[in-house]
Specification:
Two copies of one chain form a homodimer.
Chain A: E1 31-38, E2 42-50, E3 54-56, H1 61-65, E4 68-70, E5 73-77, E6 83-86, H2 88-101, H3 109-122, E7 134-143, E8 155-165, E9 176-180, H4 198-214, E10 218-222, E11 230-233, E12 237-242, E13 245-248, H5 259-270, E14 275-277, H6 282-291, E15 294-301, E16 305-314, E17 317-320, H7 328-342, E18 352-354
Parallel strand pairs in A: 9-10, 9-16, 13-14
Antiparallel strand pairs in A: 1-2, 1-8, 4-7, 5-6, 5-7, 6-18, 7-8, 10-11, 12-13, 12-15, 15-16, 16-17
Chain lengths: ~350, ~350
């Protein structure tokens, strides 16, 4: 099925940034995509319009009950001026999984894909070409019905906005120091930790604040039941190299099924490196550190791709990993994924999707 | 300290509802209160303005990371035309506790009190006078900075809106049937369950949907760690009468410190009825039902005040409580609190605050 998405071009284009050193998610392009939902009518009126403020009733449910989901992915400009997106279908599938968990009506996945493509093509001149830069794509749904009753909204907006992002590693990959969080919990099985919804991020702000004050970059989240199994690092999935095997926490209901996480697992398998998805306790990590088995650790996510962990602080003990330097495997995974994203490396799984209108 | 809050009156007043049978939170008054926050400047520019849509950048943090808190309280019109609010200071204190948990800058509690009073007085003609009706007051904070980085916002809006609410029990108090939720979890200790923030409500929608489909009014939430200790019912606190003693779950970090909950505890103590705040398992409730010890159960919250529980469904067993009728104690607590709220009953604790400008 082909969708016709009307495009209203801006008459007042903004100046594009002359460099790409701005903070993440601060510079937005000239246009955005909107799709409305009304109960009884379904999703309707897809359109690309100039980037502009939205008007909402102060009783809109998103302000009060947080019924919202989002996604994050990137578009890249190749040396030969093609536009590539990395596994957009995975993000669109997850968007609907999140919608289901948050009682938001499902989106037409083909329409979402077409909207992504249309919007990025309209703003293609915004895609930066310097090494490591990209166009960050943020699809999101908000509940807009102006009613204070606690129940799923009867009105929504699905929107996509685009942000120009500089290189995450403009000054080279620097392993970060991590505080293993003993007090706060991000999510618990039975909750919404495996959905990409606003409340999970709000819940993590306080722990991040306190870790920052203590001098750490991020927190490592432990599970909410036993307070010992590793879940995520900041808002990323996390991997540990223990001897010859790479271990990452299994998808247990409270962990996000990250697209980069999934890609790393597939790459490791492709390289015949043993990888395990299983419960992994902080005690096991401490023990592996003592015995010399723990040689690398890294977070995975769309923004950083790979974020090497230089040290973990747990119960007043500092575990330095790989002498605080970026490990060989972390670098190999980073190079492989960014190479696929930029069209410069082998793409054995067909993950890079060239952006052309159907 | 006295605050001067500028008031801009509407030039297009809305028609007031001719009856009070509308659904909760659907009819709003003519005005609203706004206060802005900018980092470096603090909270500034308090004002009462005509009720109107707000304009936000689509990147505003509230849409993406759910950094928001709210409160709910009511104003009542007495027979002699005085306006009473019920323990507004408790709500304002809790608002700042929620702000702290969500990394939102604290509000000046005196200014918030003055804003409540000013706004309600401006819209005093909207306060309904029929039995059981009231003016629902919804203060809330939203993060408005248009930046996609996951970090506390540098800009916020604090707003208050007012909604005319009909009698919750227009057709008499009807005990409700409750589904004890085995799969979904509302919140866990270490999370944000004890803050009044949007994500807690979003997390509960799916379970409520499924319970509604099964024919139940609400869910009873069990704890996320052991999956057996009782936490809340729907978005209310919960009490059980076991023999001569009333038991309610202790404030363990994942339960909201409800104003009505606190008021019920104080009233029971005032009446020399033993009341315990402690861990309370569903197994204990099932056993108490079997032995005949469980004679009443009710939820407590601002909207309903008291919501009697007629039955609990747990592991395919239906526990009918008090023959499904409203119990004597439930009725006594309801009458005492609503009497204080309307100024018709003894107010031993000075909970009813008459609304006059300072």
């Amino acid at each position: 099925m082909t969708y016709t998405i009307p495009v209203e071009l801006t008459t007042t284009p903004k100046a594009k940034p002359s460099h790409h050193k701005q903070a993440f998610g601060t510079v937005f392009t000239d246009h955005m995509f909107i799709l409305d939902y009304d109960a009884g009518k379904g999703w309707h009126d897809p359109r690309v319009v100039p980037y502009q403020p939205i008007e909402l009733d102060p009783a809109a449910k998103v302000f009060h009950y947080g019924q919202t989901v989002f996604e994050g992915l990137k578009a890249y400009l190749t040396e030969d001026q093609r536009i590539l997106m990395f596994r957009p279908g995975k993000n669109i599938q997850r968007l609907n999984l999140s919608n289901h968990r948050l009682s938001i009506p499902a989106l037409d996945e083909e329409l979402v894909m077409e909207a992504l493509k249309q919007l990025v093509l309209v703003d293609r001149d915004w895609i930066p070409s310097e090494p490591g830069t990209s166009l960050y794509i943020r699809p999101f749904v908000i509940a807009t019905e102006p009613v204070l009753g606690v129940a799923p909204s009867l009105q929504y907006k699905f929107m996509i906005i685009l942000s120009v992002v500089g290189s995450y590693y403009a000054e080279g990959i620097n392993p970060v120091s991590i505080y293993v969080e003993p007090k706060y919990v991000r999510a618990v099985a039975g909750g919404v930790g495996n959905a990409k919804t606003a409340g999970n991020y709000a819940a993590g702000l306080k722990a991040q604040d306190e870790a920052t004050l203590k001098g750490y970059s991020q927190v490592l989240w432990l599970d909410g039941v036993h307070r010992k199994y590793i879940e995520e690092v900041g808002s990323m999935n996390v991997f540990f190299k223990l001897g010859d095997t790479v271990v990452t926490p299994a998808l247990n209901g409270s962990i996000l099924d990250g697209v980069t996480r999934n890609s790393v697992i597939q790459l490791l398998q492709h390289w015949n490196i043993p990888v395990e998805e299983r419960a992994l306790s902080i005690d096991e990590i401490v023990e592996a550190h003592r015995s010399g088995l723990l040689t690398e650790a890294f977070g995975t996510g769309t923004a950083a791709v790979i974020s090497p962990i230089g040290s973990l602080e747990w119960e007043d003990e500092q575990l330095v990993i790989g002498e605080g330097a970026t490990g060989e495997l972390s670098r190999r995974v980073y190079d492989a994924i960014t190479g696929i994203q930029l069209g410069t490396a082998e793409d054995p799984f067909g993950w890079a999707i060239e952006l052309t209108l159907s």
